[in-house]
Amino acid sequence: MTHLSADLAQQKRKLRERLRFRRKHFAANLDGMAQLAAFRALPAPLTELLADHSVVGAYVAWGDEPDILPMFADLAVAGALALPHHTARIDRMDFRRWRTGETLTKGPWSTQQPADDATAVAPDVIFCPLVGFDRQGGRIGQGGGHYDRYFAAHPSALRIGVGWSVQEIDATPRESTDMALDAILTEQEFILCGDRL
């Protein structure tokens, strides 16, 4: 008999492959106008939400992930934006403050991140990339568990997943360490999950 966690890990691997394929082809086939419009302005509910929080966590898009930094241009100028930072190829991730014009450096997984000497902060709201999601707040990430561990260590931070609409599935396989999202933002809609927002 196969162990349950091994089954879940296998399910997630298969889903990641399928969803990465979907994401890649969806992003590649977006026309120029759709690409320019996607994730450029915050929807009204988020504008109101972010006005009440001092530090917002975002990310630098990698590959086919939605580029959300243009939505946070004002926060980046004001010094209220933070981005994920990895010191090395370790389990620990933190967030470092980043302002428009500051250099981003290549992190241990070839992602762009703030410099090592940037100020560490704990965001009140975190927008995180995802590979797949469901409407109950389930999230499939890249598989390293960095966001889940960060969320578990900072449970009061609001968690908002960001992805393309084609990354939605009926239900994500969940383990006890998987932290549910409070909301999901796609190019088409803002989906509330749970009752924290």
UniProtKB/TrEMBL annotation:
Substrate binds at V60, E65. It catalyses: (6S)-5-formyl-5,6,7,8-tetrahydrofolate + ATP = (6R)-5,10-methenyltetrahydrofolate + ADP + phosphate. Signal peptide: none annotated. Its cofactor is Mg(2+). One of its GO terms (biological process) is folic acid-containing compound biosynthetic process. InterPro entries: FTHF_cligase (IPR002698), FTHF_cligase-like_sf (IPR024185), NagB/RpiA_transferase-like (IPR037171). It is an enzyme of class 6 (ligase). GO terms for molecular function: 5-formyltetrahydrofolate cyclo-ligase activity; ATP binding; metal ion binding. Keywords: ATP-binding, Ligase, Magnesium, Metal-binding, Nucleotide-binding. ATP binds at K12, R13, K14, L15, R16, R139, I140, G141, Q142, G143, G144, G145, H146, Y147. Its EC number is 6.3.3.2. PANTHER family: 5-FORMYLTETRAHYDROFOLATE CYCLO-LIGASE (PTHR23407:SF1), ATPASE INHIBITOR/5-FORMYLTETRAHYDROFOLATE CYCLO-LIGASE (PTHR23407). Belongs to the 5-formyltetrahydrofolate cyclo-ligase family. This is 5-formyltetrahydrofolate cyclo-ligase. It comes from Sphingopyxis bauzanensis.
